Structures are given as structure tokens and as C-alpha cells.
Amino acid sequence: MSTVMAEPTSAIGDLLTRELRHRRMSERAFALYAGVSPNAVNAWRRGLRIPDPAYCEKIAEALHLPVEDVLRAAGHLPPLEEGAEEPALPAWLTSLLLELDQAERETLADSARLLLELREKKAEYEAQRPPPDIPPG
User: Fold this and answer.
1) Is 1.20.1270.220 the CATH number for 2-78+90-128?
2) Distance set, CA 24 to CA 16, 54, 61, 129 (Å)
3) How many other C-beta atoms lie within 10 A of the C-beta of residue 67?
4) DSSP letter at 6?
């Protein structure tokens, strides 16, 4: 299934358009090859809908792309910071992400953001703390 977008996004559409053009493949041919409907491919390519993670896996397999790239383009993984290299996700984690539904992914993303905020606050606190007194020895 797909998620209806409140605002059209173009990252997954750009990826599909670029890859289909590169392969000289029509939407219909890609849909048949990937085992999805041509209407879904058209809506994804135009940014009207985003594919669910299970469909992202089908897209990645059909286009021989890393599933993380497709998940990221669809907005299921956070974008990479500019200039950062993509860390390889272990296969078990990718598999787990693909099994989660939208609500579970949002909960996981919220938890990860909170963890990162706590890590930053701890680092700020430790940077402001005076060094421990070391008795002369």
C-alpha cells in the first residue's frame, strides 16, 4: 500500500524518474517487473504518494539499488547530512524497518530523536563541568 502525502514530495519521484530514464524503461514495464500497479508507480513518480517500506524493497530489488537509498528517498529513513557517508545498515535492521508499520516507524523515529537530544545535552553538560580536582601526588 502507499501513504497519501499532504504535500507532494519529489525525492522518490526523482529517484524513479532518473532510474527509469537511465534504463529506458516505461512506468508500465517497471510496474510489471517490480510486481506493483502502474497507477502506484505513476503516483510515486509524480510525488503524489510514497511507497510503503515493503514496496520500497520491491523497488530496490527491481532497480538493483540499495534498499536504504529507496527508503531514504521515500522518507522512511532520515536524510544523510551533506558530505556524510552513508553508514551501512545491518541486514537485520533493514529487515526490521521493512516490517514496521507507519505508526511503529514514527514511534521509533521519535525515540531515536529523543536519544540524540539526550546525548547532546549530556555532552553540553560535561563540557561545562569543571574538571575534577586532582590532588598533587
Assistant:
1) no
2) 12, 25, 17, 60
3) 22
4) S
